[in-house]
Specification:
- Helix content is 32%, strand content 25%.
- The chain is α/β, with parallel strands linked by helices.
- It has one domain: UDP-N-acetylmuramoyl-L-alanine:D-glutamate ligase (3-Layer(aba) Sandwich), CATH 3.40.1190.
- Strands 5-4-1-8-9-10-13-14-15 form a nine-stranded mixed β-sheet, with helices on both faces.
- β13 and β14 form a beta hairpin.
- The longest helix has 15 residues.
- The termini are far apart.
Length: 341
C-alpha cells in the first residue's frame, strides 16, 4: 500500500450557500423578516476543507469537486485560494451552472432548512476522482450521497459511485470517511450501507446513524440517546470501522473498532451566542478527524469535535465562526459541558 503524507483530501459537494437568518420559520403563505444574509462556500467538500485549515493552517488540505464556469464557480475557487486549499482537482465546467443552496436559519428555534439547486452536482461522477492517488494526504473525506445522481448510480460492479471512489481511495492508501445528508431513511440506507466496508471512519448525526441501522433515534421529543447507542452498535457490527460516531444537540456517542463505547455531552453554548446551526455537523467531523490525524486519543478528538461545533454555532455561515483548535477548546472550557437531563 502506498505511503501517505500528512493531511486531508476532501471530495464531493462544492456549492454556494446563500445563508439567511429569519426571525422564525413561517407557515406557508406566511411572512418572516430576514435578519441577516451572507454568501459563503458550502457543501461537504468545501466545509470540511475550510474547517481543517481554520483549525490548523499548518495541515495540508486538497480537494476534488466540480463547479461551473460562472460567477458562483469563480467565487468558490477564490474561497479555496483564500484558505490555502490545493484545488488543482476542483474542476470547472461550462455544461451547468454552479450548485447553490438557499440556507435558512430560524433564530427562534435554532433549526435550519435548505433548498438546493443541483447545477454541477448533477454532473459529478467517479471519473472526476481519477487523479485521487496523486494528491497528498492521509485522510480522504467524501460526500454527499443523495445529492449527486451520477455518483448515486451503479458504477460497474459497485453498488454506486461512492463505493467505487472509496474503494479507489483505500487502494491508494487513504484512511476514508464519508459524510451523509438527511435525504430520508430509506435513501440513506440504500446509498450508505454499501459504502461501509470501504470506510475507516463514519461521523454522522443521530438521524443518519438511525437510518443506516434501521433504528428510530429521534422524534418530536428530541433525540433518544439510548437508541443512538443501539444504532451505533448495529452499524459497528456491519463493518469493522476504526471509529463510528453520531452527534446530536445534547452530545455524541462513538464506538471504536476495539469495542469501546464513548459518550460525551456537548458544550453548553449560551443561547445568546447561537446564531445558526448550519455547518455544526461539518465542524464536529472536522474537529474529531483532526484530533485523530494528530494522534490524539478518541475522547480528546471527540471533545474537539464538540468544541468546533460549538464555535460554529456563533456564525450564520457553515465555517465563518470556527477558530483554531486551541481557540475552540478554550471556548469550550469557558462554557463548559451540558448537564445531563
Amino acid at each position: 500500500m502506498p505511503e501517505r503524507t500528512a493531511g486531508f483530501v476532501t471530495g464531493g459537494t462544492w456549492c454556494v450557500d446563500r445563508n439567511k437568518l429569519l426571525e422564525f420559520w413561517p407557515a406557508e403563505d406566511g411572512i418572516a423578516q430576514i435578519l441577516a444574509s451572507e454568501g459563503r462556500g458550502g457543501g461537504s467538500g468545501c466545509n470540511f476543507a475550510v474547517d481543517i485549515r481554520k483549525l490548523d493552517p499548518g495541515v495540508p488540505v486538497a480537494t476534488i469537486g466540480l463547479v461551473g464556469d460562472d460567477e458562483d464557480g469563480r467565487f468558490l475557487l477564490a474561497e479555496a485560494d483564500a484558505h490555502g486549499i490545493e484545488r488543482r482537482a476542483l474542476a470547472v465546467t461550462a455544461a451547468a451552472p454552479t450548485q447553490y443552496t438557499e440556507a435558512y436559519g430560524s433564530l427562534k428555534s435554532g433549526r435550519r432548512t435548505h433548498f438546493y439547486f443541483p447545477g454541477t452536482a448533477a454532473l459529478l461522477a467517479p471519473d472526476h476522482f481519477a487523479g485521487l492517488e496523486t494528491l497528498g494526504g492521509q485522510f480522504f473525506h467524501l460526500g454527499l450521497p443523495g445529492v449527486h445522481p451520477l455518483m448515486d448510480s451503479p458504477c460497474g460492479e459497485d453498488a454506486n459511485g461512492w463505493v467505487a471512489v472509496l474503494r479507489q481511495a483505500q487502494a491508494a492508501g487513504f484512511r476514508t470517511s464519508l459524510e451523509l445528508v438527511s435525504t430520508g431513511a430509506e435513501r440513506i440506507a440504500a446509498l450508505g450501507r454499501p459504502c461501509l466496508p470501504y470506510l475507516d471512519y463514519l461521523i454522522v448525526n443521530d438521524v443518519e446513524i438511525g437510518s443506516l441501522a434501521g433504528v428510530t433515534t429521534a422524534g418530536e421529543s428530541g433525540t433518544d440517546a439510548e437508541a443512538v447507542e443501539r444504532a451505533i452498535c448495529t452499524v459497528a457490527g456491519l463493518s469493522p470501522l476504526e471509529l463510528v460516531a453520531a452527534h446530536f444537540p445534547a452530545g455524541a456517542v462513538a464506538a471504536t473498532k476495539e469495542g469501546t463505547l464513548i459518550r460525551l455531552p456537548s458544550i453548553a453554548v449560551p443561547s445568546d451566542e447561537i446564531v445558526a446551526a448550519n455547518g455544526a455537523g461539518d465542524a464536529f467531523a472536522a474537529g474529531t478527524l483532526y484530533g485523530v490525524h494528530q494522534g490524539w486519543d478518541v475522547g480528546a478528538a471527540l471533545r474537539l469535535g464538540h468544541a468546533a461545533a460549538a464555535a460554529s454555532l456563533r456564525g450564520l455561515s457553515t465555517t465563518g465562526a470556527v477558530g483554531t483548535w486551541r481557540e475552540c477548546l478554550a471556548l469550550a472550557r469557558r462554557w463548559g459541558a451540558r448537564m445531563p437531563g
